[in-house]
Automatic annotation (TrEMBL):
Classification via InterPro entries: Mpv17_PMP22
Cell compartments where the protein resides: Membrane
A single cellular component GO annotation: membrane
Organism: Symbiodinium natans
Listed transmembrane segments: 42-62, 293-312
UniProt similarity note: Belongs to the peroxisomal membrane protein PXMP2/4 family.
Pfam families: Mpv17_PMP22 (PF04117)
Source species taxonomy: Eukaryota, Sar, Alveolata, Dinophyceae, Suessiales
Protein name per its UniProtKB record: Sym1 protein
Length: 322
């Protein structure tokens, strides 16, 4: 767009399927849709969709490796262990990996728990004749995953870091600022952690599940996508974001944030529609539950960059008051 405004033309990529996907339909339409150009257009669209699917799959695999493989390398799969600790010892799944009953004072993260087990086993190896006494006196506790022990804290910390990284990319790479605004970055990161980490947990995992059910059928997926697109995002997520941003950055108040929300809603929703409806439909109906976190993290990271850029562009380029 800047080149279109400054030089009067807008070039497209000559060596990319995206450029061909933009140019070929226009050429075919101008020529009256002859059979050759029509077939080329269909083929280009096919390769474009295939390219997006392959890239999405690769991003999901990278995200899975970063968010699941690396953090949980060497750890057993204990997603449900410790989930019902408040009802133990009478609830199901109250026996931990050490073979003892869960109790709140004896729960540790995996690194601490594995270290305590190592110390106990080392003492038994050094003093085998006192193995029974060591077992009775040295209690390594039990392992409970952080996401089960403190799910909201984990969600907040994860999305806080992701929001900060997204805004950093928006400022340094997209807007090419020489000096990054830490105030803007902190405000964006805090909102990301508070709402995207905690708020949307209740929207997607609690409210949507209660309203539409936990199924992965196409009908359920379409209902969730429509509710997200026409209710949640435009009338809950974005108003809260603009109100918080204006207040936190000191550029206005909640009322001015709502005015900016009304003015920028079409452009923001247009950008949102290009990313999320198809993705959410795929995620709600196809993606296995154990991969959804990785897939959402990858896609929402891109969206946060777009949202940070769009929401600050009009503020920073507004004409100075006379």
């Amino acid at each position: 767009m800047p080149r279109m405004d400054g030089e009067g033309y807008c070039s497209i990529e000559a060596d990319s399927v995206y450029g061909a996907a933009i140019a070929m339909p226009q050429i075919a339409r101008s020529s009256g849709w002859p059979a050759t150009l029509t077939s080329l257009t269909i083929r280009i669209y096919f390769f474009t969709v295939l390219n997006l699917l392959v890239q999405g799959f690769l991003l999901s695999m990278i995200g899975e490796e970063q968010l699941i493989m690396y953090p949980f390398a060497g750890q057993m799969h204990l997603c449900d262990f410790g989930a019902s600790v408040k009802e133990c010892p009478d609830a199901p799944n109250c026996i931990g990996p050490s073979g003892t009953v869960y109790s709140p004072p004896r729960l540790y993260s995996f690194p601490i728990w594995s270290t305590r087990v190592f110390v106990r086993d080392s003492m038994k190896a050094i003093f085998p004749e006192h193995a029974e006494q060591i077992d009775a006196s040295v209690d390594p506790g039990e392992y409970r995953s952080a996401s089960k022990a403190q799910p909201l804290a984990v969600a907040f910390a994860t999305c806080f870091a992701k929001g900060s990284a997204s805004d950093s990319i928006a400022q340094k790479v997209v807007e090419q600022k020489e000096e990054m605004s830490l105030t803007r970055n902190s405000a964006f990161a805090f909102f990301s952690g508070a709402y995207l980490g905690i708020g949307q947990h209740f929207v997607y995992n609690v409210a949507f599940t209660r309203l539409f059910g936990p199924g992965m059928e196409l009908r359920v997926g379409v209902q969730k996508v429509l509710a997200d697109l026409f209710v949640h995002v435009p009338f809950l997520y974005l108003p809260l974001y603009y109100m918080f941003e204006d207040t936190a950055l000191g550029i206005g108040n909640p009322a001015s944030g709502l005015r900016r929300w009304r003015a920028e809603l079409p452009d923001t929703m247009m950008a949102y529609c290009k990313i999320f409806p198809i993705f959410h439909l795929f995620n709600f109906t196809v993606t296995p539950p154990e991969l959804r976190i990785a897939v959402v993290a990858c896609v929402s990271f891109v969206w946060l960059v777009v949202l940070s850029y769009l929401s600050h562009y009009n503020v920073e380029h507004a004409p100075a008051p006379e």
